[in-house]
Design goal:
alpha/beta, Rossmann fold, seven-stranded parallel β-sheet, two-stranded parallel ribbon, 10 helices, 13 strands, about 40% helix, globular
Length: about 300
């Protein structure tokens, strides 16, 4: 089975390629290099095509059985500063991919969404909660989910939105998300910055667990929206403590004002993904942090 992946040379995409290869599937990466990173393993088929040009690649689309759309600008800060650019990169490109896939007859599209679509929710986020995004980034992901639904209904394909919680793991050297940034700063002996009081919670999920869920969603009927997380809340302070244990050193912390659009709590209810796909996360947070620290240590040597 051939699965086309937009943005496949990046963090989640390259990890997904490794998981697909282990399963005997064939990843086909569409990535024009604008992200400035390339973590692809050797031998993966790659096409240097921009997402906005994908509609003109009908033969390529007709050679695959599913499309996984990961190319995006996944940053609350970027969307706050450049909302119109975030709108086009996240929503515009998602609609372009959906329409190109539908017109080429690709039966299934998996789109990356985010818990940011739900907004400030008390307790685990499930698929029946009405999205009330608290950030521009979250709003772009809510719109992507709506277009997945609209194209599914209008064109007769199956488009599923996977709401990722906070993903971390290897092949993430360019990422500015907390786990990756904090580990890199700690290895460099630099302080880390915590926005707010550090008691805000996140659902941290190891990238291989997300990649396994994407694989299942690309090969089985599911959706239209699935939460993809661990179901475990971890405070930012607890996350820092886990990194300190894995590194065997303390990390100096500087406190700063809460950022606009940051939610206070975030945790996923995974029961629907388990029921539809038989998927559950396998990597505990402490073990995932140890793997990620080891990756960065190896890269710095």
């Amino acid at each position: 089975m051939r699965i086309l992946i937009t943005g496949g040379a990046g963090f989640i995409g390259s990890n997904l390629c490794r998981v697909l290869l282990k399963s005997g599937l064939s990843p086909v990466v569409v990535d024009d290099g604008r992200g400035g990173v390339d973590y692809l393993p050797a031998g993966v088929e790659r096409h240097a095509i921009a997402v906005e040009a994908l509609a003109g690649e009908r033969a390529l689309l007709q050679s695959v059985e599913a499309v996984v759309h990961l190319a995006a600008r996944p940053s609350v800060e970027f969307a706050n500063e450049f909302p119109l650019e975030a709108l086009d990169a996240n929503v515009g490109d998602t609609l372009r991919v959906l329409l190109a896939a539908a017109e080429a007859g690709v039966p299934r599209v998996v789109c990356a969404s985010s818990n940011a679509a739900a907004g400030n929710v008390v307790g685990p986020v499930h698929e029946q909660i009405l999205p009330r995004p608290a950030s521009v980034y979250g709003a772009t992901k809510t719109a992507c989910e709506a277009f997945c639904s609209a194209v599914s209904e209008s064109y007769g394909i199956q488009a599923v939105s996977l709401r990722f919680s906070n993903c971390y793991g290897p092949w993430s050297d360019h990422k500015g998300s907390a786990v990756h940034l904090f580990i890199r700063k700690a290895l460099a002996g630099e302080p880390v910055t915590v926005f707010g009081d550090g008691l805000q919670t996140r659902d941290f999920i190891y990238v291989e667990d997300i990649a396994r869920c994407i694989e299942l969603a690309a090969t089985r009927e599911c959706g239209p929206v699935l939460q993809v997380g661990t179901g475990v809340e971890t405070t930012v302070r607890e996350m820092i403590a886990a990194i300190e244990r894995a590194m065997g050193t303390s990390i100096p912390v500087e406190m700063a004002e809460k950022r606009r659009g940051d939610v206070l709590t975030s945790v996923s209810d995974n029961r629907l993904a388990e029921a539809q796909l038989g998927w559950t996360p396998q990597v505990a947070f402490a073990a995932g942090i140890e793997k990620t620290v080891a990756y960065y240590r190896d890269r710095s040597e």
